[in-house]
Amino acid sequence: xxxxxxxxxxxxxxxxxxxxxxxxxxxxxxxxxxxxxxxxxxxxxxxxxxxxxxxxxxxxxxxxxxxxxxxxxxxxxxxxxxxxxxxxxxxxxxxxxxxxxxxxxxxxxxxxxxxxxxxxxxxxxxxxxxxxxxxxxxxxxxxxxxxxxxxxxxxxxxxxxxxx
Amino acid sequence: xxxxxxxxxxxxxxxxxxxxxxxxxxxxxxxxxxxxxxxxxxxxxxxxxxxxxxxxxxxxxxxxxxxxxxxxxxxxxxxxxxxxxxxxxxxxxxxxxxxxxxxxxxxxxxxxxxxxxxxxxxxxxxxxxxxxxxxxxxxxxxxxxxxxxxxxxxxxxxxxxxxxxxxxxxxxxxxxxxxxxxxxxxxxxxxxxxxxxxxxxxxxxxxxxxxxxxxxxxxxxxxxxxxxxxxxxxxxxxxxxxxxxxxxxxxxxxxxxxxxxxxxxxxxxxxxxxxxxxxxxxxxxxxxxxxxxxxxxxxxxxxxxxxxxxxxxxxxxxxxxxxxxxxxxxxxxxxxxxxxxxx
Lengths: 164, 343
Description:
The structure holds two protein chains of two kinds.
Chain A: H1 12-15, H2 18-33, E1 56-60, H3 73-77, E2 83-89, E3 96-104, H4 113-117, E4 123-125, E5 140-141, H5 143-146, E6 147-149, H6 154-163
Parallel strand pairs in A: 1-6
Antiparallel strand pairs in A: 1-4, 2-3, 3-5
Chain B: H1 3-39, H2 55-64, H3 76-92, E1 102-105, E2 108-111, H4 120-141, H5 145-176, H6 181-187, H7 194-197, H8 199-212, H9 224-227, H10 237-261, H11 278-304, H12 312-341
Antiparallel strand pairs in B: 1-2
């Protein structure tokens, strides 16, 4: 930062302000002519970068089964107590699966701890930021809303592999 | 011309001017929002109508349908009167501002000014000082300390800056040897614009005009962080719209005055050498007047987004210790011009 100028340090042209005012006005004029960065939201949507923490989702493998093994770590680590997992047994190789997996989106604080703690990369933060509900019951997302095909989450999984 | 013809022509002129004034005020609000948006790298209103062009009408309609609240502590007659004074003053001033020389329509030689008064400049000064009453009444009658402070500040500011404004105008009057706006414009024929002849007077007048219209950097009467909304804190609905429109109408008046007094009014240098027909010349001159006014209005908005607000003591310092001596100096300068160069 430039050193602070006292009034006695100013030269004549700085003292009569006119030149300085014109300098300031040229600066604002330059800004007026700069390209605008506004996105007109409903028509143009913001595409977040991979590091964006939108609503947490469960990864659905290509064969239609979720990756989650219902270990319950996410539920355990969640500081807002938003996640509820109920495990059950399955014939598949992973042996356990979440019979019920609910995230209360009114409690979720988008901290991403669940994603960090997950040993299977089964729960990740998506880019979805449009969360609207009209009543409290709608805000509890079950498996039907949480499961997202793995192809849609490639960006985030890639990001996690590089930086987690 | 008999009296009826004069009356009808004048009424038509008034109708045209008032319509144009209301439209310009409405679109000045739109323009202000656009310019402020551009200065902050935003887009500005663009939803209502094409490019947001119907936005001012939506705003006025919104204000009209709102509830009109009068505080219990208010002095009700004055509270109601204040916005009307402000509006009346703002719109009545426009009567003497010429926006062209004269035009021939249907055999009538029509002067392009509503009232060609030979003391037009005095009329403007008188009316703009009346404008203080609107604001002071509003501040006092609301029965709220914020409004009162805003009103007091505003009247102090206007009275202080009226002095330097009057003295800057004196320089113009000395050169034009007339108080009639049309004569003043005619005196600035060619490149003899007053801004070229007396730049000091131009600067003092512009600064005083900013202070008179309560625009930033002199918007202390409505300084939001200190005074909530200033003198119109306790106003709502259409009374608020009245003050709002009056403020913008005052801006237009100030721009027109700056153009008429210093930027040569409707004059375009060397236009008579081009050999254009008389009607075309007049239309071009009207266009020049409108263009100059819009440019000055843009400067008003531009300054608002460039310069921070003054402190109150700085405001008074500049008014009395800088602007006032400078405007006196300007009179001396004009006197020298007249004495030595016989202008």
